[in-house]
């Protein structure tokens, strides 16, 4: 049986009486969702797009969901990025993250356990959030933490208009989906970080090369050693109140123009 935080004081919804065909259909949907998240990282896409895919596949994998959102957080559980499958989910999660700072996603990440509610308007865990969402016509939620090892990296929020739309069966399937989804999101984030560090290194190498060229030009013109050439370039930057790289780039471009003019 799934381990999750149920709505206090509310009787758990009865498990749906599912036929073998319905159970098989749910397994097929789960497999389709898992297959989808398994192929996410191979495309080397941004984290925002990966979140969009996870939310889309979650609706397919979790029975009873009318819409879903996927959230990526920092180590301090601050929301970094999130994506949704429907406008009503965006409205709800905007209230949760940006207005109230209260809701099932936040709770499930803090507790590291799925959180479920079948009547948000009467759920005392989120007195402000629950009533506000119920007035939007949404009454059920299943929030699942996205974890890699012991680290929480985000969450999946699945919402439904009807009351008691999620039961233990949905928690079981959602939890099976959340594990691989978390790995895909984590790997996508690592890949994005590696690409950004590579770009930063490339920019640093280009910057260093241009500065070295500028120092070489100063040495050729004045006969000074490298250290003094760099000091002169630094003073030029300070006098012009312009970044060192920009001054170096201007100096190199000027030298190139003069060389071309001499050839003509």
The CATH superfamily of the largest domain is known as GAF domain
Q: Could you report the average pLDDT, rounded to the nearest whole number?
A: 85
State the CATH architecture of the largest domain: 2-Layer Sandwich
CATH hierarchy class name of the largest domain: Alpha Beta
Strand count: 5
Unreliable segments of 5+ consecutive residues: none
* Helix/strand class: alpha+beta
Major sheet, described briefly?
A: 5 strands, antiparallel
What letter string, H or E per element, gives the SSE order? Answer: HHEEHHEHEEHHH
Backbone CA Rg: 28 Å
The portion of residues assigned to helices is: 55-70%
Q: How much strand content do the residues show?
A: 5-15%
| CATH-assigned fold name of the largest domain | Beta-Lactamase
In the sheet with the most strands, the strands line up as 2-1-5-4-3
- Shape category: elongated
Structural overview:
- The chain is of the alpha+beta class.
- The chain has 2 domains: 20-193, Beta-Lactamase (2-Layer Sandwich), CATH 3.30.450.40; 195-263, Winged helix-like DNA-binding domain superfamily/Winged helix DNA-binding domain (Arc Repressor Mutant, subunit A, Orthogonal Bundle).
- The protein has 8 helices and 5 strands.
- It has helices at 20-38, 47-61, 87-100, 104-111, 127-135, 168-222, 226-240, 244-263; strands at residues 67-73, 79-84, 115-117, 140-148, 151-160.
- A 5-stranded antiparallel beta sheet has the order 2-1-5-4-3, sandwiched between helices.
- A hairpin with a 5-residue loop joins strand 1 (67-73) and strand 2.
- The mean pLDDT is 85.
């Amino acid at each position: 049986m799934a381990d999750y935080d149920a709505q206090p004081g509310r009787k758990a919804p009865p498990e749906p009486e599912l036929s073998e065909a319905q159970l098989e259909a749910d397994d097929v949907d789960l497999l389709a969702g898992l297959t989808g998240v398994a192929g996410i990282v191979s495309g080397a896409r941004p984290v925002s797009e990966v979140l969009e895919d996870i939310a889309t596949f979650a609706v397919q994998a979790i029975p009873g969901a009318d819409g879903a959102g996927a959230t990526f957080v920092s180590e301090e559980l601050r929301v970094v990025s999130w994506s949704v499958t429907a406008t009503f989910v965006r409205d709800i999660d905007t209230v949760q993250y940006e207005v109230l700072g209260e809701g099932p996603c936040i709770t499930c990440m803090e507790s590291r356990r799925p959180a479920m509610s079948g009547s948000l308007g009467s759920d005392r865990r989120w007195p402000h959030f629950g009533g506000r969402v119920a007035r939007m016509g949404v009454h059920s939620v299943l929030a699942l933490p996205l974890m890699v090892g012991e680290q929480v990296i985000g969450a999946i929020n699945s919402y439904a208009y009807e009351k008691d739309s999620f039961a233990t069966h949905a928690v079981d399937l959602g939890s099976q989906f959340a594990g691989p989804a978390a790995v895909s999101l984590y790997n996508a984030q690592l890949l994005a970080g590696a690409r950004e560090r590579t770009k930063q290194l490339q920019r640093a190498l280009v910057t260093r090369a241009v500065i070295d060229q500028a120092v070489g030009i100063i040495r050729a013109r004045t006969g000074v050693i490298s250290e003094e050439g760099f000091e002169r370039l630094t003073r030029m930057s300070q006098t012009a109140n312009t970044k060192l790289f920009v001054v170096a780039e201007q100096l190199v471009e000027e030298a190139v123009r003069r060389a071309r003019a001499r050839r003509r």
